[in-house]
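Predict structure. Chain length: 157.
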Amino acid sequence: MFSISVKYPSEEEELEVMRRTTNPSNVQLETVLTAAEIREIQDLVPRIPAGDHVYRYALKLVRLTRPEERDAPTYVKECLSWGAGPRAAQYLILGAKARAILQGRSYATTEDVARVSEAVLVHRLVTNFNAEAEGITPLSIVRRLLDEVPREAAERI
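Prediction complete.
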């Protein structure tokens, strides 16, 4: 669903990881959630409502990453050999709904979609030689789309 980039730890952080994982320890584990509670939370995410404009916004972002799409921006057509598929649209909505819960809201917004877009889309875009020669990355393309596609009233595609 998401691609999360994790950087190397600092020298001190890495030293601490080494110490904690190579010495005997008597870690006491504590149950935080039961299996039933985890299932309940998992079932909650799809039930969070999102307006049609939120679905359309997510769909528009995904479709605009496809170079063969009629309305795709010129930079997408020139820089991508492959865009995001239908699963990306599903994950944008599910990610937005999960984010809404984490933000204490009972509904998802286009802002939620925008905030999860990099993690959902970047690893699904394949740049071509033109992009690589110019130093254009999937991340820069996603950020440009986020800047250009209106959030609150995603128009019909």
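Summary: The mean pLDDT is 93.
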